[in-house]
Structures
1.
Amino acid sequence: MSERCAVIGVGQTHHKAKRDDISIAGLVREAAKAALEDAELTWADIDAVVIGKAPDMFEGNMMPEIYLAPALGAVGKPMIRVHTAGSVGGSTSIVAAHLIRSGAHKRVLTVAYEKQSDSDAMWALSVPQPFAAPLLAGAGGYFAPHIRAYMRRSGAPDHIGRMVAVKDRQNAMRNPYAHLHLADISMEMVEESMMLWDPLRYLEACPSSDGAAAMVLAAEDSISGRYPPAWVHGMAMRSEPTMFAGRDQVNPQAGRDCAADVYAQAGVTDPRKDFDVAEVYVPFSWYEPMWLENLGFCDLGDGWKLTESGATAFDGDIPWNTSGGVLSSNPIGASGMLRFLEVAMQVRGQAGEHQVDGARLALGQAYGGGSQFFSMWVVGSEKP
Amino acid sequence: MTETAHEPVTTLATPIRLDFDFTPGVAQSRFLKGLAKATFMGQRCSVCGKVYVPSRGSCPTDGVPTTDDVELPNTGVVTTYCVVNVPFAGQSIEIPYICAQILLDGANISFMGLLQEIPTDQIRMGMRVEAVWVDEAELTPSLSSVRYFRPTGEPDAEYDTYKEYL
């Protein structure tokens, strides 16, 4: 890849439990328009559109990208749909960035969304499979046993998950677009919330949100916008089979390999020191310490100690999920892109009250499925 | 006719239905036919020697066909678990229930099973369990032939014996 690529515009909806004022087409258009305005461009300036969302079964709209083409100004332009479950917002951004870096296009609009109020993701993730035991209870039911395995393996105390649940909701108070604004969030409030998938409580899980995210990516000779560009320093995707003997679901190899690749591209050797901020897909509180280890921010078994020390808090040395993260807004298909978008905002200096002072290099990460899809990018304020 | 004021319709819930035929294929058919005889059938990879249950017909790590059938015992260990206490559309088991990852003795991969005959706060990682089958007349080529798993009462397995399956 020879061309440099930068984020020159970002846009997102106000994420809510129910956006009944607007259709799916309206939702994606709202985010896309905001991104175009931020890039100081019009629909006509866009060469191609790359769109992603979680499985079609969630809303029951098959191949929705076809119906959404007019709303995104994509009629007559190349349009690509990306599918990688919960990580899709990240993978979609990466596919869009490849269109720039390969030299194929100058300006690409990338969009991701989910309208959970039009769907029943809990049902869609729990559909009994033929001849199988009908036990699976949503994403929480899938991940809770792996969280328990992490707790056993690392010896982490119970309160770590609650700390993450509180920290990310406190960060969300700084972000006007976040779905959850829980001003009175506290350790006690999390502890008193209902146990849904023991060991996971209600407030340790992400909400169901309607929302969309969009970015305009551009080549070096096509930079515009209200803020300086966020340059892409590295991007990578990895996947692994959902089931194989000896698979480490707590610390998946695909995640480790993806991180190693993206760090090598960006020249990152010590992620905790080299990054100023990270946005990482943490839909259940315990995934913060788990991904701290998987992403090499600390030694194996020490993720929970980093969380406990406050290092990942807004005023810590490596803030994680300054936007409030997936724990505060979860329009599933858009959730990965919101991670990638937040770090672009950070290095562009446009994050407002959730801005980390002087953020120059940042990591965005998304994962999906049964922890088998990973996508990551590194963006920076300086040209790579 | 008098004019009546109605709220505009903005959303319509439309239940949909999809019927489909499912073809399990050769390897899974072997597993399902085993269930109809109250046995767990797995397959051993000829390269890595690992035993997969349900049998899959190939090894995802080595990419070779698996043809060596292995009949596994009724017993195993709970590697990890969660207690499901969340209701959802289509749920068929009364909550709260224990959803356990069960590693059958001699297998190299766990699968999800329902654990009963134990209070939800007494389940432990490493607990020894056994399958409870439905009555012989009710056995079918389906996992519904396994009524549930229950503790055997044996001492718990040492963490080191199952930690690589987490």
2.
Amino acid sequence: MAKAEFETPKLSEYIEVPDLVEGTMEHITCFVAKPEHQEALGFPGEKVENWKEVAIDKMGDLLSRYRSFQVFMDACVKCGSCTDKCHYFLGTQDPKNMPVGRQDLLRKVYRRYFTFAGKYFPKLVGAVDLSEEIIDDWYSYFHQCSQCRRCSVFCPYGIDTAEISMAAREILDSIGVGQKYCNEIIGKVHKIGNNLGLPGPAIVDTLEGLEEDVYEETEVAVKYPLDVKGADILLVTPSADFFAEPHVDGLIGYGKVFHEAGVSWTLSTKASEAGNFGMFIGSYENMRRISLRIREAALELGVKRIVFGECGHAWRIAYSFLNTLAGPFDFLDPDYPVPQHICEFTLNEIEQGALEFDKSENDEMSITFHDSCNVARASRMGDEPGGQFEIPRQVIKAVVNNYHDMEWDTIHERTFCCGGGGGLLTDDLMEVRVKGAKPRMSAFKNVMEEKGVTHLAAICAICKSQFTKVFPYYGMDMFQIVSVHQLVSNAIVMNRKTPPEAAPGYGEDDDE
Amino acid sequence: MSSAYALLFIVATIVLVLGLARKIAQYAKTPAPLKIPTTPAPVTRFGVVLRMFREVVFFESLFKSTKWTWIFSWLFHFGLSLVLLRHLRYFIDPVWLPIQLVQPFGKYAAFAMVAGLVGLLIRRIFVDRVRYISSPSDYLWLLLLLFISVSGATMTFVIHTDVVAVKQFFTGFWTFSGGDLPMDPILLAHLTMVAVLMLLLPVSKLLHIPGIFFSPTRNQVDDPRERRHLVEWARKLEDS
């Protein structure tokens, strides 16, 4: 696959709806999963011989198991409401990146094989036979959807392209044409426990390193415990938090918050991944298998609560699906929601007066907040609808002096995807990622110019990695993306001091 | 000729009712295994009823999206609902009071329908994004609805037909004692197109009518942490 040359889009002051240019992203194709990646997940290793039959059968199977898929295939009236809502369309002008354009790639086949009109009057309703070209289109364009659900906000029937693209990817997997990035990662979770394939000892090393760093900085022995039985809280966090920047600064922040709150907590090797790429490929079975690891870890460690770290799609699965996939969690403390988001935890501690902050520690920055799509449009925090917007902002405002929101039509439920979600965070899709980031980059640039904002805070591991990579394409600095709990970490005043003998490394020299 | 029309409407009614019932049964029977409301979403059942009401009556999501499409489609649907209510008078005797009250508005609502449909058609032709996603059937539906509205309005405002005879035909219809339909070309064209609409509705995109009520992103309560949601096929995975 030759590295595609492409031009970074120019940023605009408002959301500009571009003219259509057909085929601009037709050349996009990401690496196909190898047989071993496929088979580990229960999919055929290579494209099966009777792929047409298998694909149609799979479509029928999904139509009978998912009401969303069945209703969404039927209900679209082609009103055009969604056509200018997808960040990939806005950044590429390719009509197959309009939500309905993308859905129609599947819908025209649905109509041909499953509807009266499509069977007998295909031309009239735009129904077509399944062909090699259509499979190629599916593979290309359903891997140009980040499943961000922005289209579903504006659809008069609530049609959610994420559901369609999940179904499409599941059909592709069923005929042996899976995506390498997602399927390889899911295999790692099944085998090792996290997306990065970090084995237990590597995590131990990292956490010990963090303890030393934090002690050096604060002279307080903040613990980053792993696999501690009997701890009250199990923290499940994306594995990127163990080493990637700025993710790890967020993890440092969680530890400081737990320390100051005086609660006992632990990470788990078995549940060393909050992320769950099973959702991206639409596989209930794989998503469930990954979720069950969290249940098992909670049972083995005997914890009372589960808290999730900063990760967007993980929070969707944790909040919306975990109870379904791996519940019931009746063995946990019923006084707390299962699971809780780290922002819910932190804000609660702030409201209890358990945490003290020196906001001036963040004064060299002026912050805006990026609502991650899965948090914004597929989950909640707190008791009220919309808590997912307010709670992270309240946490940020408690620890910084300078905060400004981006334009109203680019935040909250209207937020724009970072461009790298939904299983697209791979270098072979860099062109899609850069172009799809355009609307978010525009809104960020505007708030930088108008309000003097310097940094973008996020609560999603994928968003953070994506912005780190994409900022430079738009002339920004990769360090302009920060974790919310990094800001907390900067400002938190460590009041629970440590006696010298409890410091990490104390007495080690004597043992030698 | 009258009996041919009687037969046509009997068939059309059966197809419409059975066709819709079949699709509704399919939607109702198909499980929704995961909680996927588009959030922020209501956290109570009553809240969902309100959300659905705003969506069905005011097209809330479309309003958020594009004002022109919203104006045209709301004009059309609002006009259509008044016109349909007004048409009840051709099927019931005596005419209920609410239907009598709708009468004056129902007559002029035809103009709202036509205005909305023309707007939607123009948009479909001239906005490149909407043109791209349109199949022949998308234009044909607009044209069919336009012809129905214009022919109906013509009979109301320009060339009147013998509505008393029409009412006798349709009220007698149910008791097989119907009189003769006036052999009025505009009326016959109007009725033929209405019958076509009834016949095709259950196999077309007009399935958005039942579909909206079954859309999981709109009809689900946002309470996954409080209540465990589990469908039958997912429960089977747990047993295995």
